[in-house]
Design goal:
87 residues; mainly alpha; 5 helices; 0% strand; globular; disordered C terminus
């Protein structure tokens, strides 16, 4: 959902919450992988994207592009303690 919100829709968590009828904390939990959006949530996001004439593919709900997984990348970097660090 982070990729959809930031790279496709280019909106804030608050705006995503308004679109889905959820609160900002729920959107944050989706992005951290703590909760999964419901089918209704996904349908609202899809409808919003289409209403803006944005290119849409439902794969976006299930496949995060490698270049837009900042939370996962940060976790991996921290788990590989300072390999290749330069001063």
């Amino acid at each position: 959902m982070h990729h959809i919100r930031t790279s496709v829709l280019k909106i804030s968590q608050k705006a995503m919450a308004e679109i889905t009828g959820r609160d900002q904390a729920t959107v944050s939990r989706w992005e951290r992988g703590e909760l999964e959006p419901s089918r209704d949530d996904m349908e609202r996001v899809r409808s919003f994207a289409r209403s803006r004439h944005l290119r849409w593919n439902d794969k976006l709900f299930f496949e995060v592009p490698d270049d837009d997984a900042p939370v996962l990348r940060r976790s991996r970097k921290h788990s590989h303690s300072h390999h290749g660090a330069t001063a």
